[in-house]
Amino acid sequence: MAPSQLALQVIEWDINAPDYEKPVGTIAVPADYTFVTPPGAGRTIRMAGTDVMTDVYKIRINRNEKYNVPSIQLRLNNVGGKSSELPSYAAYLRTTDGTLYPMKIKPWNDKTLYPLTPKELELSASVPVAVPAEGWELLLTEYHEKEGVHFPIAFYRLPEASMTETGSLGTDYSFTNSDGVYTVRMNSLERSPWENKDELSADLTLSNQGAEPLPRRSFRLTICSTIK
After folding, report:
1. Centroid of chain to Cα 59
2. DSSP assignment, residue 160?
3. Rounded CA separation 86/108 (Å)
4. Where does residue 123 rank: exposed (0-12), middle (13-18), buried (19+ CB within 10 A)?
5. How many other CB atoms are there within 10 angstroms of residue 153's CB atom?
């Protein structure tokens, strides 16, 4: 059922009316109402008894042979008067056909949201390349232990994001793994002949542009076989 099909009926208790209910009026849901937050807009949610303004701050999509790997930064700003703890949230990427892909949420070292101190949740998922990368939505849910289910908290329609498949010299390139979002830049690339081979020497900068620390990892650099 669409939200626009809902209506709130206001009644007055009256012992002279049938079933003791006297209709007073009806409040209809506007036809253009949607519970999905549009791109560029924010939504206020209740978190541990305080108001928190949320918005999709940034989205990037990396692509490999099998998957599109969207990385989303959801900004949380506590606009209430007291600190609150981040609840047990789960996130899903919803495609146009309603399919849900679970998203990994990078944990915070400090789960406290202090008043007027924005923090960002880093979310990532793997979506098969056969799925069109358009019309996607972010679904945020909260787990309620008593009922044992996840309740929807907010929906966000994701803005269009450019695909990142290859980088160029001097350009930042972001990629996502289970630890979070890393940024790499190729500062220089030198090619020198050596007998019947070529030697390639690359200068790379690996950085973390997020607010939370990332572990230092060992990465492997592979040269594309199409280089001539």
Report:
1. 7
2. P
3. 9
4. buried
5. 18
Residues 6+ apart with CB under 8 A from 189: 169, 200, 201, 202, 203
Residue 5 sits at φ, ψ, to 5 deg, of: -90, -5
For residues 221 and 206, the answer to whether their CB atoms sit within 8 Å is no
Q: pLDDT averaged over consecutive 10-residue blocks of the chain (228 residues)? A: 78 88 86 84 91 91 83 92 89 94 88 91 90 93 85 91 63 72 78 70 82 78 57
Give me 156's structure tokens.
């966000």
Eight-state DSSP code of residue 99 = -
For residue 227, the number of C-alpha atoms closer than 13 Å in the C-beta half-sphere is 9
Amino acid identity of 43? R
Amino acid identity for residue 9 in this structure? Q
**Inter-residue contact 63 to 173 (CB < 8 Å):** no
| Cα separation, 157 vs 16, whole angstroms | 49
Tally of helices (H runs) and strands (E runs) in the chain = 0, 18
Answer yes or no: pTM beyond 0.85: no
The type of residue at 187 is N
